[in-house]
């Protein structure tokens, strides 16, 4: 579904992404791991159009989507979430979801005068879909709560819900477990697995919680120093000498071997 070819993103002399090449298979839940500074989030930002690449290419199927802005990728079904949830804090959880679909009739001033019936019909349909999404995510009891007042884990679920309000094809999840308690993290994992199996979503997940990665992700890609270091099952990744060195350092690895 997504193919990255020799991608580079430089910030002055710092090469955050340094020749990364990888493929994301349709229908997969791919884990993306690596030490801090490996380039994972920058890679996400380049694929999702938040940053322009210095060089290299990103393909979605056979289409070159390199450098397309986020709003164009959104309409192609490429969505991403962020480490810190971006909710409309003074709006309800339901209203946050209803805001997502683009090209709504109510966005045009002319329609507020002559298209009120169409606007009302659209809003009823959006409300029904938002309530369905909230129920799917088991947070229907938060429908009328202000989004800024729910917990961090519930905000992450709400971000996942936003992807369900449009025709998402691939979703990039950036540290979905950050600051989330174990119970809610399990709920998020359940939702990801259901969206994958029941609705055909493809996911790429950056996460430091290896239990979470091991539960939902196959394959797992490890990045280091801006490029792909290894790919395989989580057990294969954990046993990979290059991965161990990237996480622990040569000195620590040799010390452990000597011990």
Short summary of the structure?
This protein has 259 residues and is α/β, with parallel strands linked by helices. It has helices at residues 40-47, 70-75, 93-98, 111-114, 116-136, 152-164, 182-199, 210-216, 234-239, 241-248, 250-258; strands spanning 2-11, 14-24, 29-33, 55-60, 63-64, 78-80, 170-174, 202-206, 220-224, 227-232.
Explain what you see.
The chain has 259 residues and is α/β, with parallel strands linked by helices. It has two domains: 2-87 and 167-257, P-loop containing nucleotide triphosphate hydrolases (Rossmann fold); 88-147, no CATH class. The protein is 41% helix and 22% strand. It is built from eleven helices and ten strands. The protein has helices at 40-47, 70-75, 93-98, 111-114, 116-136, 152-164, 182-199, 210-216, 234-239, 241-248, 250-258, and strands at residues 2-11, 14-24, 29-33, 55-60, 63-64, 78-80, 170-174, 202-206, 220-224, 227-232. The strands form two sheets. The chain has a six-stranded mixed sheet, with helices on both faces. The chain has a four-stranded antiparallel sheet with strand order 2-1-4-5, covered by helices on one side. β9 (220-224) and β10 (227-232) form a beta hairpin. The longest helix is centred in the middle third of the chain and has 21 residues, at 116-136. It starts with a strand and ends with a helix. Mean pLDDT is 88; it is low at 251-256.
